[in-house]
UniProtKB/TrEMBL annotation:
<dbReference type="InterPro" id="IPR029017">
    <property type="entry name" value="Enolase-like_N"/>
</dbReference>
<dbReference type="GO" id="GO:0016855">
    <property type="term" value="F:racemase and epimerase activity, acting on amino acids and derivatives"/>
</dbReference>
<dbReference type="InterPro" id="IPR029065">
    <property type="entry name" value="Enolase_C-like"/>
</dbReference>
<comment type="similarity">
    <text>Belongs to the mandelate racemase/muconate lactonizing enzyme family.</text>
</comment>
<dbReference type="InterPro" id="IPR013342">
    <property type="entry name" value="Mandelate_racemase_C"/>
</dbReference>
<keyword id="KW-0413">Isomerase</keyword>
<dbReference type="GO" id="GO:0046872">
    <property type="term" value="F:metal ion binding"/>
</dbReference>
<dbReference type="InterPro" id="IPR013341">
    <property type="entry name" value="Mandelate_racemase_N_dom"/>
</dbReference>
<feature type="domain" description="Mandelate racemase/muconate lactonizing enzyme C-terminal">
    <location>
        <begin position="147"/>
        <end position="245"/>
    </location>
</feature>
<protein>
    <recommendedName>
        <fullName>Mandelate racemase/muconate lactonizing enzyme C-terminal domain-containing protein</fullName>
    </recommendedName>
</protein>
<dbReference type="InterPro" id="IPR034603">
    <property type="entry name" value="Dipeptide_epimerase"/>
</dbReference>
<dbReference type="Pfam" id="PF13378">
    <property type="entry name" value="MR_MLE_C"/>
</dbReference>
<dbReference type="InterPro" id="IPR036849">
    <property type="entry name" value="Enolase-like_C_sf"/>
</dbReference>
<keyword id="KW-0479">Metal-binding</keyword>
<keyword id="KW-0460">Magnesium</keyword>
<dbReference type="Pfam" id="PF02746">
    <property type="entry name" value="MR_MLE_N"/>
</dbReference>
Amino acid sequence: MRVERVTPIPISVPVEQALKTSKSADGDDEYHRILIVLETDTGVTGYGEIAPMAHWPRGLTQSACLDLLEDVLVPAVDETRVHRIPRLVEDLSSRLADEPFPLYGLEVALHDALARERELPMYEHLGGPVGGDPELECHYTVSIDEPSRVAEEARTAAADGYEAFKVKVGGDDFAAERENVRTIRETVPDARIRVDVNGAWSPDEAIRKIRRLDDDAGGLAFVEQPVSRDVVDGHARVRDRVPVPILADEACFSASDVARLATRGSADIVNLKLAKTGGFTGAKAAATVAAAHGVSCFVGGMLELGIGQAASAHFAVSTPEVAYPTGIFNVDVGDSLLANDDEWRIADATCTVPSSPGLGVELDSEALERCRTD
């Protein structure tokens, strides 16, 4: 089976539920994404998705991703055998250096085509579901917001079966953020609460604030990215001085990053996102290194639409190193662009990953036409 055509499609989807973080106080009005449609000479089509995330480390604008796809990646895979994915990924990674985002969508599309040809669900293609059942527990993400709204959100989420909550912090009003954490604890007494700083604090600030939030929560499950990835020794310093596990997100893109963080004593947990690792190959390698160093894994997302969420779900459910409820489906992104969106509904805070071939996604052509911007 050879690659016959790769079509990158720029899209823009209105946001239904803005996620307010320390990086984006007002949230986003639209999500600018790129869909990858990979056609083969056997009639099999694979899909991928790219969430450029320009404000992230190594992130790119949508137009920059399109340029790299059209100038570097697409020509490199033209007429190539799909079965050569490992060699292809190695070659493409060397061409892109430190820019994994565009590679992610293309690599996933290659795997999707291969799994569809083999008539295997992606989680079987990647090694099989951990524990035998392709099910994922999901957490609920709470934006930086007013405590009254947070209380209402927490009650609704708890009624829907959520027990794990991730609370965004690191904004301008720490008193309100403390109140949000206390509100969730009071509203959902058995909640497992973690907070995500998105690198907004200095090491000294992080130590002080984490201790207070840990008291407010009656014990935090973990703290995500308390300081900037550029503060090289800051993570280890914080980890040594607080009683809460530290999760690295913006500081962790690859297997080598995992090894570096573990060697320096900087993280107890790493957030593996396919967009950061350049796809399944890099994410599986990072998980293996994490296990070797005694570091746990968590799987998050980049606010992807249906295709990207599906890819992350298949990775998470097939990776034994993943030890925490996933953050893949952490907000309502609006139109998923999937015709079979109902198969991906979360029930009782659990996603049952479909067993149809490949990613288990069917593209909604009418929705795509509404959203494409090319």
